[in-house]
Amino acid sequence: MTDGGVDRSVECTGNANAMISAFECVHDGWGVAVLVGVPNKDDAFKTHPVNLLNGRTLKGTFFGNYKPRSDIPGVVEKYMKKELELEKFITHEIPFSEINKAFDYMLRGESLRCIIRMEA
């Protein structure tokens, strides 16, 4: 389909099989796979060593290589100056007593971010 592989692939699900597929589908010699999704702690990434020796590049990142200690103060400052609109990402607000609804929304892909309100 791609005449030897894609130039770039990005995997965002955290599914180990999807990660392997994202890496193995890039072109020998110059293809780059970027893994962004966070896998299960027990998952293993298994591929034939030749896939690495043929010049494919595998990159990964946790949280976009974000450095909380140095980067969070800048994000907070942008938020306080209204330069960063986080509210538009909140899709649901749920009381703690209904926390299972938040998981249901997440599993069905119906929410981006849920705010869980602690009850008094």
From TrEMBL:
Gene Ontology molecular function terms on file: alcohol dehydrogenase (NAD+) activity; S-(hydroxymethyl)glutathione dehydrogenase [NAD(P)+] activity; zinc ion binding
Family: Belongs to the zinc-containing alcohol dehydrogenase family.
The protein's assembly and partners: Homodimer.
EC number(s) per entry: 1.1.1.1
Keyword DNA-binding: no
Keyword flag Cytoplasm: yes
Protein origin, superkingdom: Eukaryota
Sequence ranges assigned to domain Alcohol dehydrogenase-like C-terminal in this UniProt record: 2-77
Listed InterPro entries: ADH-like_C, GroES-like_sf, NAD(P)-bd_dom_sf
Main location group: cytoplasm
Catalyzed reaction equations: a primary alcohol + NAD(+) = an aldehyde + NADH + H(+); a secondary alcohol + NAD(+) = a ketone + NADH + H(+)
Keywords carried by this UniProt record: Cytoplasm, Metal-binding, NAD, Oxidoreductase, Zinc
Cofactors demanded by this protein: Zn(2+)
Protein name as it appears in the record: Alcohol dehydrogenase 1
GO cellular component: cytosol
Family matches, as Pfam families: ADH_zinc_N (PF00107)
A GO biological process held by the record: formaldehyde catabolic process
Enzyme's top EC category: oxidoreductase
Compartments, as annotated in UniProt: Cytoplasm
